[in-house]
Write a structure and sequence with these properties.
alpha/beta; Alpha-Beta Plaits; six-stranded mixed sheet; four-stranded antiparallel sheet; 29% strand; binds adenosine-5'-triphosphate
Length: 324
């Protein structure tokens, strides 16, 4: 389990992580989503013990990251964004070295190497020097290093960055399997990654935690103020009075909060009504029942927010722009 209580990090006058609190439970994969410079890496570094929080408290597996640093750090496997690998060693020698650093008992080292090599599918490159490896294999060696010693907690900073589609899928499979029995936290820019492997999502921007929930929970929150649009045909020349009449009828529907009406840009003699609606079962049907007797309804749509919409809602820009 990872627990952050009001954790902040300042570099000089700049606060890059601002009073962040959350818990990640065993058997859970938490995705950390945010634009460039949001504070994801800094937060992961504070959890891993690579850097200390300026204020607040980090606890991992029940141990305080400052006062019980050595034992707390042993509970963690950390894959940094750029894993520090020793290029001149071969994979076997590097992993053996990493196992010793992690205090894996000497008699267990061979078994541990076998285990992580199989988990990360490194058999084919076991005797190769690290400088000869492709980026995908280097990343998997980094992941294998993080898995050594069977840590309870796995922290992964952009684990699939720079990998090809097959490698991405394989790495996600390893993470998903590990997440079934461990506590996993990963940072990513990739929404697909979050939907494929994360149970909950934390959205961070400018050091502040904006939301943390399951993808479905976030969707529901954003849907609280969701939008239904409808197109209705009106007799020629009646658009102004029709718009007013339509607006008052729509506002009578329970759950419709605001209505904005304008002439359709695509079709003559059509109005487009945009309604902000509360999250409520059957609201589209209620709107349709109100409109159909008096209006020629052409289209009615309610768009469920995607993770991209949710990110937009909180961060104010699409993911693609935020990482450009
Ligand atoms: N050692 C440091 N000294 C000063 N500022 C730092 C230091 N490390 C990080 N920062 C600043 O802290 C902010 C957060 O950086 P961080 O790397 O945690 O963001 P991030 O969300 O991981 O971004 P990215 O997605 O680009 O990796 C940035 O503005 C960064 O410049």
């Amino acid at each position: 389990m990872i627990v952050l209580e009001s954790v902040s990090k300042r570099f000089g006058a700049k606060t890059v992580v601002d009073q962040v609190s959350f818990t990640v439970n065993p058997g859970e994969v938490l995705g950390f989503l945010g634009p460039n410079g949001a504070g994801k890496t800094t937060t992961l570094r504070m959890i891993s013990g690579y850097t200390t929080a300026t204020s607040g408290r980090v606890t991992v597996a029940g141990y305080d990251m400052v006062t019980q640093h050595t034992i707390a750090a042993r509970k963690i496997g950390y894959l940094p964004e750029r894993p520090p690998l020793y290029d001149t060693l071969d994979v076997a020698a590097y992993l053996k070295f990493a196992a010793k650093v992690k205090a894996v008992p000497r008699r267990h080292i061979a078994d541990e190497l076998d285990r992580v090599v199989v988990a990360c599918r490194l058999e084919a490159v076991f005797r190769q020097e690290i400088f000869k490896l492709s980026k995908g294999y280097r990343q998997r060696v980094g992941l294998a290093q993080a898995l050594l010693g069977k840590p309870e907690i796995l922290l992964l900073d952009e684990p699939t960055i720079g990998l090809d589609p097959t490698q991405i899928q394989e790495t996600r499979d390893v993470i998903r399997a590990f997440g079934e029995t461990h506590t996993v936290m990963l940072s990513t820019h990739i929404l697909q990654e979050v939907t494929q492997i994360c149970h909950r999502v934390a959205i961070i921007d400018r050091g502040r935690l904006l939301a943390i929930d399951t993808p479905a929970g976030l969707q529901q929150t954003v849907e609280q103020t969701h939008v239904v649009t409808l197109n209705v045909a009106v007799p020629g020349g009646q658009t102004d009075t029709s718009a007013q009449a339509l607006a008052s009828e729509l506002l009578e529907v329970d759950g419709v909060e605001t209505v904005h009406i304008e002439p359709s840009a695509d079709t003559a003699n059509q109005l487009v009504a945009t309604c902000q609606v509360a999250l409520k079962d059957g609201i589209e049907a209620a709107i349709a029942r109100t409109v159909v007797p008096r209006w020629d309804l052409h289209q009615l749509a309610r768009q469920h927010p995607t993770l991209e919409n949710i990110f937009m809602h909180y961060v104010g820009q699409p993911v693609a722009e935020s990482v450009a």
